[in-house]
Amino acid sequence: MYEPKPEHKFSFGLWTVGNVGRDPFGEPTRAALTPVQIVHLLAEVGAWGVNFHDNDLVPIDATPAQRDQIVRDFKAALAATGIVVPMATTNLFSDPVFKDGAFTSNDPAVRAYALQKTLNAIDLGVELGATTYVFWGGREGTESDSTKNPLEALKRYREAINFLCAYVKDQGYNLRFALEPKPNEPRGHIFLPTVGDALAFIATLDYPEMVGVNPEVAHEHMAGLNFTHGVAMAHAAGKLFHIDLNDQLFGRYDQDFRFGSMMPKQAFHLVKFLEDVGYTGSRHFDAHAFRSSNYEDVKAFARGCMRTYLILKEKAAQFNADPEVQQLLAAIHADDGTFSYLGGGYSREALAALRATGFDRAALAQRDLPYERLDQITLEILLGVR
Ligand code: DIG
Ligand code: MN
Ligand code: MN
Questions:
Q1: Number of Cβ atoms within 10 Å of the Cβ of 218
Q2: I need a labelling partner for 338 at 20 to 30 A (CA). Which of 74, 133, 232, 268 fits?
Q3: DSSP 8-state symbol, 384
Q4: If you take atom 6 of ligand 1, which residue's CA is the nearest one?
Q5: What is the distance between the alpha carbons of residues 231 and 199, in angstroms, rounded to a whole number?
Q6: How far apart are CA 227 and CA 244, in angstroms?
Q7: Computed from CA positions of residues 180, 182, 186, 187, in that sequence, does the dihedral angle turn out positive or negative?
Q8: CA-CA-CA-CA torsion for 291, 46, 3, 53, nearest 10 degrees?
Q9: Which residues pair with 156 in a beta bridge?
Q10: Ligand 1 pocket: which residues have CB below 6 Å?
Q11: How far is ligand 2, taken at its centre, from the CA of residue 289, in Å?
Q12: 158 C-alpha to center of ligand 2: Å?
């Protein structure tokens, strides 16, 4: 039961199970693993895919010969384990050169370097089989708004993404871009802070059809938002190209906890949504184990992410099949068709009919809404007593 299978499309970044436990207030608590060791760890726990930033795999100062050897070894590990590479991305946030951003840096040479670095990282990702390319602009932002005009910053961001879309088209790559929003950290304020901002930005691009979003649970929770509602917005716009699953409470720093471990009811509604709409993309766990964990506990962390998803998937099916739930939902959404004429949008006939209608507000306000009963059933399904 709850054993991960390739069809579940569970993936982890090299940086997730490879996280060494460093935090802003402490040194590493775990020895670093090589990308090859990480691939074998992921195979051991039953993952389907592995993702990477360019420099998770190839150190920023590697020589071309070192790069080729690293890629050869990595490809051999993929072949030996059957692990695939669904997504790749660029590290545009660690090196000091990006201290004031990459694509939105005030220095045109840094912006040009970021573009060049991303071209090379896209080539690497495609070489390893990635079909989704994520852009998380961790350094694209400000601490002081005196330093950067947001309109100019967004123009630079737009020009970079447009250039890179044109490159992918010119190369004939089978690759889609996914923008990953985050409200802050490491920058005081990060551009494209939420799913809504990213969706609005995509509409201004030269090739919007190539660009979607990669929502992350922790990032929307940092902003105190309902993650499932943001995911629904993206899905409705045909832009849910990828998703970063993890967890944390609202209003905290980016904790990247094990999926479902902090707000299981929110995680339930997310899994129910993804399964109900038939989401076919990766279930990527952008999360890491507690700093206090050793690698055996890191494996428990990874297994926990996948098990919790599968348990909640089963709970969602139980909810959908529950007779009382179905009876309550039918009553809650009862519609005798009186106002179905409004479903076709505006017309003179619809206008006349609506104008001629009298409404008994007091009677309407008496509608039964057994939401407490429905939510209690939801909770009891989650608590395993139903
Ligand atoms: C952080 O949430 C970001 C980086 O880890 C990476 O660029 C992206 C891909 O999942 N998520
Ligand atoms: Mn995060
Ligand atoms: Mn992420």
A1: 24
A2: 232
A3: T
A4: 136
A5: 11
A6: 11
A7: positive
A8: 60
A9: none
A10: 13, 15, 53, 89, 134, 136, 180, 216, 244, 286
A11: 13
A12: 23
Active site residues: 53, 56
**Torsions phi, psi of 240, nearest 5?**
-85, 80
Say which CATH topology domain 6-320 has: TIM Barrel (3.20.20)
Structure tokens at 309: 């998803």
Tens of pLDDT, residues 154-207: 999 999 999 999 999 999 999 999 999 999 999 999 999 999 999 999 999 999
| pLDDT digits 0-9 by tens, 260-301 | 999 999 999 999 999 999 999 999 999 999 999 999 999 999
Q: Is the pLDDT of residue 1 over 90?
A: no
Where in the chain are the domains? 6-320, 323-383
Name the strand (E) or helix (H) holding 135: strand 132-136
Say if residues 9 and 48 touch (Cβ distance below 8 Å).
yes
**Checking phi first, is residue 10 left (phi over 0); if not, alpha (psi -120 to 50) or beta?**
beta
In tens, the pLDDT along 37-67 reads: 999 999 999 999 999 999 999 999 999 999 9
From the list 133, 32, 129, the residue with the least C-alpha distance to 92 is 133
